[in-house]
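Might you be able to check the backbone structure tokens below? Thank you kindly.
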Amino acid sequence: MSGNDLPETSLPVGRVVGVAVLMIVGVVVAGGAVYTVDQGERGVVTRNGAVIGSVDEGLHFKAPVIDAIHRYDVRSNAYTMSSKSGEGSGASGERVSRDDSIDALSSEGMELNIDATVRYHIGSDQVRSLYTNVAVDEAGVVEKIVRPTSRAAIRDCASNYKGLAVYSSERESFQSCVDDKISSEFAENGVILETVQVRSINLPQSVIDAINEKQAAEKRVEKKEAEIEIARKEKQKAEIEAEAEAERIRIKGRALQRNPQVLQLRYIEALQTGNTIYVPADSSSFTLTREVARGNTTTANTTTTNTTTNTTG
């Protein structure tokens, strides 16, 4: 080796491998120390299983390995309990393919079948308490708070009302009762109620049949009453018309008595047409009849105060 040659240097293979491993571990550790909480979520931070705080949306850092993040959706959510397959909600938001409606008893023991949707959200400042006292995720909150509280409140309120009243006249009052009970119990557990929609209240088929029969009977009675009223008015109309006709005849008779020349004119006209004419008697207040035929005129018996005369013309 000449004096200008430098000695060759090289790293031991083991040292190179160790450096590479450390670099990989550093990347993994650094990556695990950074996390994000999405918009509409809140996170609970635990260290070795114990809660140490909560975080809002955004980018955050945590101690690798020993820290963990538990996320809650604090946006508006809906939980539906329905008798129709595919409408109900599961604890994790999936659709339920079975009858999940609420069976309840009214104050008189009538069986009711109720469909309802509960809209709620988790209080953003309550996630730490929820994690500590209720559940470590949103599905647990639904299963332990939303579902049982809603069903119990609806059953409890239904027991205060008669079945038909809940179905019709007092439905709004029933709805208010449900709202108040669920809202109060949700608030105690860090959940905020937005609204409860009582979608339908189904009565037993026997009750529905009885209601339909009652309505049909009422319709029949209404129809009969209308027919009676029509007949009564028609009778009144006929009586009024008859009285008017009688009065018209009386007025005409008095007018003919006061104007005998009109009667003579009518008599001449009747000779030409062969009609029947009613002639007031000259010497009394009653009316006699003259039968008039073309070419053959017969004057009926005319009764006067003193004599009766038969005249053939």
Q: What stands out?
A: Residues 283-313 have pLDDT under 50 and may be disordered. Residues 188 and 307 are 116 Å apart (CA to CA). The radius of gyration is 51 Å. The chain is about 45% helix and 30% strand.
